[in-house]
Amino acid sequence: MSKTIAVIRGDGIGPEIVQATLRVLDSLRCGLDYRFAEAGMAALEAQGELLPQATLDAISACGVALKGPLTTPIGDGFSSLNVELRRRFDLYANVRPAISFPNTKARYSGIDILTVRENTEGAYLSEGQTVSADGETAQSIIRITRRGSERIVRYAFELARRKGRKKVTVVHKANIMKTTSGLFLNVAREIARDYPEIACNEMIVDNTCMQLVMRPEQFDVIVTTNLFGDILSDLCAGLVGGLGLAPGSNIGSGAAIFEAVHGSAPDIAGKGIANPCALLLAAADMLDHLDLVAQGTRVRAAIRATLAAADPRMTPDLGGSGSSERFADALIERLQTRA
Ligand code: NAD
């Protein structure tokens, strides 16, 4: 089978980690072809636009994109290119795995939490944000819809079923935000009935923060609204050692974009020392999405084995003295010996 994916190299360290990631993907020989497209500063410089139509067309045509981090220049048209991509493709589900890896500076081991965040509504609407003429009062709208809640909760339960997960925790604040969070919670209760084999519990968001810090092992899949999901997924990334190993996927009905959670890291761009693992883990999730589950599992296993061995070819942020490319060499070597 051959499948073409759109690849956006991105800005800053983007081209370095994309290059390393594609080399690892190529070593799997799983029939992936790449259609390269530009976005961000690279696109602005080459084509005079931050998000060219050709890039949107490439994502639409392929249905799947692997994306390096993008720099959004301050003061230009979009508030964020990533938000714009979510809007254009209605990427309603943001999925962020937080997995413990060996030999990292993490507070806990044995964590494997999937946060599923609603990505299109809630408190993150661009419309309806007002400030009174005297500047004394600011207002914004929170909008939750039955449709938006249904599709994200169903996505979380389907994901749990596909991955053999045992429990979904619905995180809310319905005790105070009775209308918006209340609607989300009621819809979640209805949907949960369709998945009797998966345990479902409910937790108020403030308690969830405390529970995550004190007993993270009780969590399996978390599903929640936009703002809570934004905060909780970063909290989960912190539990397992931060951004270097944090992938994220943005899923819609017609397109899916896989990326690292971190940004373009201008402080280390061009030095060749960026850690490619977050993007590689995103690529592994992309392989799962493409029904190449065995290959995705192999990539994660190679990363785990490389970290467990404290391979010196790892990048400095993980305690190695290597580079993005040497890290990729170490991973490819492991993938080939286990092929
Ligand atoms: P950042 O994530 O780029 O960097 C934060 C710190 O983490 C820096 O010290 C950086 O060197 C380090 N770091 C990040 N990724 C690393 C990696 N793979 N290996 C080793 N070290 C790494 O955050 P920032 O500095 O706040 O943002 C820089 C730019 O990235 C901004 O323009 C921002 O808008 C953009 N950004 C883009 C995305 C995205 O496209 N998904 C996400 C976040 C930020």
From TrEMBL:
Entries under Gene3D superfamilies matching the protein: Isopropylmalate Dehydrogenase
Positions of the Isopropylmalate dehydrogenase-like domain: 4-331
Highest taxon above the source species: Bacteria
Pfam family, one: Iso_dh
Keywords (A to Z) from UniProt: Oxidoreductase
Gene Ontology terms for molecular function: isocitrate dehydrogenase (NAD+) activity; magnesium ion binding; NAD binding
InterPro entries cross-referenced by the UniProt entry: IsoCit/isopropylmalate_DH_CS (IPR019818), IsoPropMal-DH-like_dom (IPR024084)
Biological process (GO), any one: tricarboxylic acid cycle
Protein family membership: Belongs to the isocitrate and isopropylmalate dehydrogenases family.
Name this polypeptide is given: Isocitrate dehydrogenase
